[in-house]
Amino acid sequence: MTDTNVPALPSTAGTLMERMGIAITEVSAERAVGTMPVAGNTQPFGLLHGGASGVLAETLGSYAAQVHAGPGRAAVGVELNATHHRSARSGTVTGTATAVHLGRTLVTYQVVVEDEDGRRVCTARLTCMVIDATA
User: Could you give the CA distance from residue 52 to residue 75 in angstroms, rounded to a whole number?
Assistant: First the structure.
């Protein structure tokens, strides 16, 4: 992660992000972008698993929400919904989370997941609650 738009991120070693091959390429409170390979994230019929799109969406929205929350606060997901528009069988998908609402206690992002040809695979919405971080 050498992109200058990515703040210092915690290690993903041993996390679901690592297991799924998710790479964050841009993060701000207003927007987060990341990629995920289709290979290894499919259902038995060879299509990108809908749950994998959900994981990518929640990951991107949560990173952006954490930047919005700031030091001493934490963002925790409270709702995720997703509509799957088309399948992906290979390559890499890219997700872009865009802020819809940046409040003091609730934040909401729309996340669009696209295939390598720029076709929309999934549209998701994530809402996070912003709370005081515990010690």
Answer: 21
Over residues 66-99, the pLDDT tens digits come to 999 999 999 999 999 999 999 999 999 999 999 9
| Dihedral angle computed from the Cα positions of residues 50, 51, 57 and 63, in that order, rounded to the nearest 10 degrees | -160
pLDDT value at residue 110: 98
Domains and CATH numbers, the chain: 16-132 (3.10.129.10)
Give percent above pLDDT 70 in the chain: 94
Output the pLDDT for position 2.
39
Instruction: Determine whether 58 is an active site residue.
Output: yes
| Alpha-carbon dihedral 37, 124, 122, 39, rounded to 10 degrees | 20
Q: Which of 58, 79, 114, 116 is catalytic?
A: 58
